[in-house]
Request: fold
Amino acid sequence: MSNHSLKTMKDKAMKNRKIQQNNLATITPAAFYTNEKDKIKLNWFLFEYAAELDSHIKRPLRKRLKRKNIDNRKIAEFCIYYSKEMKAEILDKLSGRIENVALSYHAIEDFFPHLNDKLVDDLLTSAFDAWDSLTSMCVICPTRCISEKDNKAPMFDDPIYYE
Reply:
């Protein structure tokens, strides 16, 4: 292989990496409030869940989603959407209207109506894994996002989450 061909391959690889990096949408707390009154601990929990869900959508699933023209930016948008869809379910659990929080495929199908059942199931599995992971951390977390759900969450104003 010539040096020119090798350089061209390296340039292509670097360009593809840059595209992938630019394609990474970050999930920021700003997606979970519209005004100062929204900066509450329950909304912080939803932010944490969206970020946790994003981290549980692993590379093999991302590759399969990519074949459906769903890039990392769209996955992040989905994680935010799915998390916000959980709010009513969480409030129903806290008020005693329901016994357990149920994660549903409906929000996945609403956001991605063209996905096949296997991809929907795999996203739902990621949602379950993220839920279990986050709620197990809540047991030891001093923030108490759920038990103090209506209290102000000062983390929303921490610039570290927006860098």
About this structure: The chain is about 60% helix and 0% strand. Residues 38-162 form one domain.
